[in-house]
Amino acid sequence: MRRIISIGQTVTESRFFVMPYDTNPIGRLHGGRLMEWMISSAALCSVRFSRGDVVLAALDDLFFLSPVSLGDMVVIKAWVEYTGRSSMEIGISAYTYPHMVGEPVLTTTSHMVFVAVDSTGKPRPLPHTIEPKPGEENVYKLAEARALRRKTLLGTREQASLDVDEYGPDARFRMKSSHLVTLEEARIGGIMSGGHLLHILDELTGALAASYAKNIVVTASVDSTVFVYPIREGNIIDIEAVLTGAGRTSIEVAAKVVTENPSSGVRRHAVTTYLTMVSVDSTGKPVPVPPYTPQNETERKMYEMFLKRRADRMKKVEDVKALEKLHHDLVFQV
User: How many domains does the chain have?
Assistant: First the structure.
């Protein structure tokens, strides 16, 4: 029989200090490093709750609402909001203490899904289940609704994994990179850490955006992402970054990852996501990027989808801001 636990009982807290190697040329924290910290913190919460190994299955949009600078302290709080048989909906918020003092400033808040797995990477049942106590009902209901919406999306992963074609073979602005997954990057169940993967994607997409902008860029957001196929130790991953559109100061870059078993040669689509970068000056103020006009059919189709995603992001930012108070009241009362 599974033990019943309230949401508040699952809150964990991790602290990180922004060092020079975590920052870009203007002293701002790399978005990829923050994503890696957030996923690591959410994994810690999931491991503790599930009493064993976990893997990242999906994450919601991440909007970086305030800058983080060299010398700041980042406090990340993660908690379990809802559980299935093997899955956990994790709420997570990152707060920045400028120069490690003063009042915390919200940097981002989001949700992630982790799945409890055994030593072979297969899902295993959770030993606990979440039951909200008074004051936690709204958080629980929202998480339950998200879990139900994800079922359809997660159910298409097998078919999606077969798509190993290049994302934008005719795109003018793209970069490719290959990487061999080491044991250091795949410590849990032999599956590559989602945080480490997103850090790599942030670096490559940032390089492409900076090349286009001819300037320094910072990560502004990462779209909701579903991991459709596991990447294991010893696999080769091929990463393709493609510029899909640009606004006045921002650039969207798609990142597609295909994983390959070098022994069998079998290739599978692991994940595709979209990162938005903003061109900034030496003070961090946004500056214009070169105008982007699609030149071929592939670019025109990608640009149409970029415009739809950009409109959706504007709506989602307001939803994230609305969630902030709900999350703040939950994590700061324990």
Answer: 2
7-29 pLDDT, tens digit each: 999 999 999 999 999 999 999 99
Domain residue limits at 138: 3-149
| 131 belongs to a structural domain | yes
Are 54 and 127 in a shared domain? yes
25-34, 52-61, 151-160: which has the minimum mean pLDDT? 151-160
Q: Answer yes or no: do 95 and 239 share one domain.
A: no
- Is the pLDDT confidence value at 164 over 60? yes
Map the chain to HEC letters.
CCEEECCHHHCEEEEEECCHHHECCCCEECHHHHHHHHHHHHHHHHHHHHCCCEEEEEECCEECCCCCECCCEEEEEEEEEEECCCEEEEEEEEEEEHHHCCCCEEEEEEEEEEEEECCCCCECCCCEEECCCCCCHHHHHHHHHHHHHHHHHHCCHHHHCCCCCCCCCCCCCEEEEEEECCHHHCCECCECCHHHHHHHHHHHHHHHHHHHHCCEEEEEEECCEECCCCCECCCEEEEEEEEEEECCCEEEEEEEEEEECCCCCCEEEEEEEEEEEEEECCCCCECCCCCCCCCCHHHHHHHHHHHHHHHHHHHHHHHHHHHHHHHHHHHCCC
Quick one: 88 and 192 in the same domain? no
